[in-house]
């Protein structure tokens, strides 16, 4: 049985609001085994995209070596009624558009992208939390478990508690959308200058604050009840419920880009404490009520690794599993599992998921080398006899390394196949990478990657069994090791650890081991291979683009070591400029004023930038074939700097001339 699960929307509007049907992805499940899974953002380069996952579907089919007609059914990650209700709202708001429903649109998109005629009875909609639950339980390796789904919302619920076992998923309790802990967190982070998709940033800020400062205000938002119940403060219509208590005490909301004050740190600490109090109230009750010894925790809230660490330390369970793709991309997998069951293939338990390396690879060795050498005017390429040993020496010598090999990871975290790596010991490496690569706030922590042989020498993994291979749990760094691991130990003495086994990633495990042999510390700083403007890299082109637009010292792609020949600003002339499918230009002026030009990316909350007349005209003339020099002629230093800045922000792509 071969089923395809998908998440995302139907591309009805180019600027569909970013929080609606987000985390577009495709997953292919063959007889219960997850054989391919990747998010659409890796292809269209829009973070947390909600566009139809055509690129992801194509990648999954290619990875499995199957044609569209080989797929028995397609599972979608929301209930049909909710999908059609949302479309109904769209029809009412835009009466000039034709009336279309979910099945029709899915058939149309598949026909458009793949010439694939799918019968309506082979498109199967799944309740959102059921999809999440099956995705987690099927990969847990557990015979039975309490399965808790906690996110912003499903159809009309925000948390659902299940008991799984014997091929069944029995729902015990659901909590309403007004009780949503995911939405509470999402709505509250605007107070500290963040928005949708930035929850993890506020989680990282929380340890710098004192939760007692605003505890009274946060406690006014909820009331705990017996038996795992709780009430939330009824919202004033059209007003965020978190606004009133902080408005009353004169709390000044931070705006994006403004300095982070102690008040903002205290707010983040109070918000994190509130989430933990409410989540643990629910999970503790159901653990005791059912007597379950094993927990599968999933949904967007399950990516709060600080909360997950608290679950380990609570001792409520003997074992906890968190899927590496617990957000809505993972629900696509669950939709595929449910679709197979509806066709008569029972839910089968498989071994625990060992590796999240489920996406496309970088190509054959010859293909990788050919792509790298096409950039010969900017980079020099060598093939060391021992690339892992050479990389270990570079890291031990203080280099920051871009590291790409194998299949890309499914989920929001790079786990050693699309990573930026550095020595985990010097504290200044954290500040250096935050500034030179990520262009992000200095308070943001980085994760340590460690071998299983050394993990308990550095970290308190607790007595609760868990898979630490997916960076899902924040644990305590042993007190006598915190100074040694200065770049990855957070301000509160914790770290979001990744334990790398040979079975999960043999090359990455070897690299950490070799680094440990050179330095005495088998721990590396591991962060995702991307800058602040885009998702994690997928292809060799993505890898080179990120390397050339950051200050990463050296690049390792499969068996090749890559270094810059010259500054990028001096190598622009011979590169071909290609605007992205969503790149737009506009001009604005008033009588008597100079014309102002702007470039922007046409999707919800897409970035924009003012551009000079020279660069505006260059972008307007771009045909995807001409070099920068052919389009612009002689480049001044100012134009070169402007082009590199726009390239860093991914308003366009640059590549060598074929």
TrEMBL record:
A matching Pfam family: Carbam_trans_C
Keywords: Transferase
Annotated Carbamoyltransferase domain residues: 19-74, 122-337
Keyword Transferase: yes
Domain Carbamoyltransferase C-terminal: 392-564
GO molecular function: transferase activity
Family indicated by similarity: Belongs to the NodU/CmcH family.
Protein name as catalogued: Beta-1,4-N-acetylglucosamine oligosaccharide 3-O-carbamoyltransferase NolO
């Amino acid at each position: 049985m071969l089923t395809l699960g998908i998440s995302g929307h139907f591309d009805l509007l180019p600027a569909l609001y970013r929080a609606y049907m987000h985390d577009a992805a495709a997953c292919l499940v063959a007889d219960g085994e997850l054989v391919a899974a990747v998010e659409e953002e890796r292809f269209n380069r829009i973070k947390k995209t909600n566009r139809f996952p055509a690129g992801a579907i194509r990648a999954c089919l290619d990875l499995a070596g199957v044609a569209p007609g080989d797929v028995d059914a397609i599972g979608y990650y929301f209930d049909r009624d909710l999908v059609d209700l949302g479309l109904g709202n769209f029809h009412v708001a835009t009466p000039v558009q034709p009336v279309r429903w979910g099945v029709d649109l899915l058939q149309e998109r598949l026909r458009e992208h793949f010439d694939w005629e799918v019968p309506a009875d082979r498109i199967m909609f799944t309740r959102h939390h059921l999809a999440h639950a099956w995705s987690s339980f099927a990969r847990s390796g557990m015979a039975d478990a309490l399965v808790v789904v906690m996110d912003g919302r499903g159809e009309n619920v925000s948390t659902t508690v299940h008991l799984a076992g014997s091929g069944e998923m029995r729902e015990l309790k659901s909590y309403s959308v007004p009780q949503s802990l995911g939405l509470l967190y999402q709505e509250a982070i605007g107070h500290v200058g963040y928005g949708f998709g930035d929850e993890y940033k506020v989680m990282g800020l929380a340890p710098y604050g004192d939760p007692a400062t605003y505890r009274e205000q946060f406690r006014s938002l909820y009331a705990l009840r017996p038996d795992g119940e709780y009430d939330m403060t009824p919202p004033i219509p059209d007003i965020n419920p978190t606004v009133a208590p902080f408005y009353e005490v004169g709390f000044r909301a931070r705006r994006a880009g403004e300095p982070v004050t102690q008040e903002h740190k205290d707010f983040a600490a109070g918000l994190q404490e509130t989430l933990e109090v409410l989540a643990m109230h629910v999970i503790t009750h159901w653990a005791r009520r059912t007597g379950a010894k094993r927990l599968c925790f999933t949904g967007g809230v399950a990516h709060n690794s600080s909360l997950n660490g608290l679950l380990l330390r609570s001792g409520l369970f003997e074992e906890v599993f968190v899927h590496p793709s617990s957000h809505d991309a993972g629900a696509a997998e669950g939709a595929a599992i449910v679709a197979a069951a509806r066709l008569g293939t029972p839910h089968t338990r498989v071994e625990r998921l060992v590796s999240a390396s489920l996406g496309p690879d970088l190509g054959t060795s010859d293909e990788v080398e050919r792509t790298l050498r096409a950039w010969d005017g900017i980079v020099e390429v060598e093939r060391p006899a021992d690339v892992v040993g050479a990389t270990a020496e570079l890291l031990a010598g203080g280099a920051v390394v871009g590291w790409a090999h194998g299949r890309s990871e499914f989920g929001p975290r790079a786990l050693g196949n699309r990573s930026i790596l550095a020595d985990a010991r010097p504290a200044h490496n954290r500040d250096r990478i935050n500034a030179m690569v990520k262009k992000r706030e200095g308070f943001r922590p980085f994760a340590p990657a460690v071998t299983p042989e050394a993990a308990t020498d550095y970290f308190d993994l607790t007595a609760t069994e868990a898979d630490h291979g997916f960076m899902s749990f924040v644990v305590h760094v042993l007190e006598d090791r915190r100074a040694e691991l200065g770049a990855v130990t957070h301000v509160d003495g914790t770290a979001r650890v990744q334990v790398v086994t040979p079975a999960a990633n043999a090359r990455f495990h070897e690299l950490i081991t070799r680094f440990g042999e050179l330095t005495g510390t088998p721990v590396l700083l591991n962060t995702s291979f991307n800058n602040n403007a885009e998702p994690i890299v997928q292809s060799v082109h993505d890898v080179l683009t990120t390397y050339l637009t950051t200050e990463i010292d050296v690049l390792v792609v499969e068996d090749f070591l890559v270094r810059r020949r010259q500054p990028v600003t001096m190598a622009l002339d011979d590169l071909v400029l290609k605007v992205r499918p969503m790149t737009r230009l506009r001009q604005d002026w008033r009588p008597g004023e100079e014309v102002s030009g702007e470039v922007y990316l046409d999707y919800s909350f897409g970035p924009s930038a003012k551009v000079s007349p020279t660069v505006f005209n260059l972008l307007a003339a771009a045909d995807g074939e001409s070099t920068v020099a052919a389009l612009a002629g002689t480049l001044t230093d100012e134009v070169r700097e402007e082009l590199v800045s726009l390239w860093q922000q991914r308003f366009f792509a640059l590549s060598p001339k074929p």
